[in-house]
Design a protein that fits this description.
Keywords: Cell membrane, Lipopolysaccharide biosynthesis, Membrane, Transferase. The protein is an alpha/beta fold and about 230 residues long. The chain has helices spanning about 15-20, 30-40, 55-60, 65-70, 80-90, 130-145, 160-170, 185, 200-205, 225-230, and strands at about 20-25, 45-50, 75-80, 95-100, 120-130, 150-155, 180, 195, 210-215. The model has no long low-confidence stretch (mean pLDDT about 90).
Length: about 230
């Protein structure tokens, strides 16, 4: 097995390609030169966990002539859903199987086990993008008027935003009696709002969540995979 990170590095792969028997590409990594080279070498080609989102579909349609040529070089496509299968077929794909999302078959890994306070209601605001923390916090403060035992755990999607999210939360909470702590400095502590400003912790918090609000859907980004929190 060999890994090819970028299509532009294909020239450095000539030795590996000569021994290639099967090419497996995931999701929407539709690299023409990779599939073309594999087919010319007589290798079997597969696109697994294939997806074409509703939002990106019109962009694919504008270049349907190109994708029709590309799909001729793929022997088998395993689509994430019936809708993905339909969009792929419309773009010129041939042998497409509705196989479901393969992430359903992978068990999320928990690296740390945090105690769950039985009297607390843990609300996870997960994989958030710019603008979503403000919306989530506003909704949470209203929610907390009714559910006094609720606490919010904010997990931004990108680490470069950790500091700006911390500043946003601090400013928003100045006129409230609620406490804010950062996971990187205090760890898992009792507080009203916990900012998880460390990588690799999301599954650990999903495991103790009562409510998960998944980011990406409240701004023009497209939602993230709901299967991960649903596992718990």
């Amino acid at each position: 097995m060999r890994y090819l990170p970028f299509e532009t590095l294909l020239f450095a792969w000539k030795k590996n390609l000569k021994r290639l028997k099967t090419l497996v590409v995931t999701e929407a990594e539709l690299w023409f030169n990779v599939f073309d080279s594999a087919q010319k070498l007589g290798a079997k080609t597969m696109l697994i966990n294939a997806r074409i989102s509703v939002r990106s579909y019109p962009k694919y349609q504008r270049f349907s002539f190109f994708y029709a040529l590309l799909f001729k070089r793929i022997d088998l496509i395993l689509a994430q859903s019936k809708d993905d299968k339909k969009r792929l077929l419309n773009l010129g794909a041939k042998k497409v199987v509705d196989f479901l999302n393969i992430k359903r078959f992978s068990k999320p890994v928990i690296t740390s086990f945090y105690p769950k306070n039985p009297s607390a209601l843990n609300v996870i605001l997960a994989s958030t993008h710019e603008g979503e923390e403000e919306l989530g916090l506003k909704a949470f403060l209203e929610f907390k008027k009714t559910f006094k035992n609720a606490r919010l755990i904010v997990v931004p999607r990108h680490p470069e935003r950790f500091k700006s999210v911390q500043n946003l939360l601090q400013d928003a909470l100045k006129t409230t009696p609620f406490s804010l702590e950062c996971f990187s400095s205090k760890g898992f502590v009792e507080c009203d709002i916990l900012l998880v400003d460390s990588l690799g912790e999301l599954n650990n918090f999903y495991a103790i969540a009562d409510v998960v609000i998944l980011g990406g859907s409240f701004v023009k980004m497209g939602g993230h995979n709901p299967l991960e929190p649903a596992f718990f």
